[in-house]
Amino acid sequence: MSGFIQRHRSSVMGILNGFDRVRIRGTLRWLCYVDGFGKYLSAMKVRLKDFKPYAEGITDRVRRATERMAEEAGRPLQYLGSPSTSQEEVARAIAELEGAPPVQTRGHESARPSPSPPNLIRDRVSL
User: Fold this and answer.
1) pLDDT per residue over 46-94, tens digit each?
2) What is the rounded CA–CA span in Å between residue 94 and residue 72?
3) What is the pTM of this model?
4) N or C, which end of the chain is more exposed by having fewer CB within 10 Å?
């Protein structure tokens, strides 16, 4: 990525870092299933009754790290509460408020929530 930025540095007005969405794929796919997730929690020594505070703690750590990165970079942190909010439009509005020159960008569509997988028992899906 840094090679790309170096090559196009005259056109780059800033760099955004952070999580947009987290998808579980590849070698962590086993976490998507009850048995795999149960094994993960067991390995982490988290009881089911303690899962809520465990998950809230991880969420808090990610949030604080994100806030710290934004503060260190001197950048605003704005929560977008809906996947239909255009990230590009928000970024352009912030750039305009700060007096940054307009930039040409490629089209970008933020991730949309995926439909839930069918419930194999309830929906009687045949494989």
Assistant:
1) 999 999 999 999 999 988 998 898 888 888 788 888 888 888 888 888 8
2) 18
3) 0.48
4) C
